[in-house]
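Handout, section B. The chain below has 160 residues.
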Amino acid sequence: MDRPDFDDIFMELAVNLAKRSHCIKKHVGAVLTKETRIISIGYNGPPSGTHNCDEEFPETGCSRDSKGSCSLALHAEQNAILYAVKNKASVEGSTLYVTLAPCLPCARIIYSMGIHKVMYMYSYAEYKGLTEDEGITFLRKFGISVEKYSKRLIIDDPLI
């Protein structure tokens, strides 16, 4: 029997977490690990205790900020990091698995929190129509290991 490696297990979990998202634009999942242990999980969406965009605004989603981004939503990697910190888990030296490459603001948080590796599935730049993945460029510039997940997973959610 072939045993899956941990990269596959954690990325498959990130894909499944993305399916929990209530965003009407994009579903993103994240898993934060240390060695072979999960320390936190997250998916994109509004802060706990507010409303779910697909239920409150099913046609348009939440309102947009001045840059066209969701005004209420937290990114999957932000949710994973915040949950870990809220529960007093150290994220320093951890690895982040995420279905969409981090944006620049998330990359700054990842770097500041001491996360040492990021593995992602899809390009944020391609999704947003940008010329480069600024978050990936930032992380690499400051010595964070960044790797694109190269295996193919079966994904049945068109928003992932």
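Note. The two ends are 30 Å apart (CA to CA). Compare this with the example in section A.
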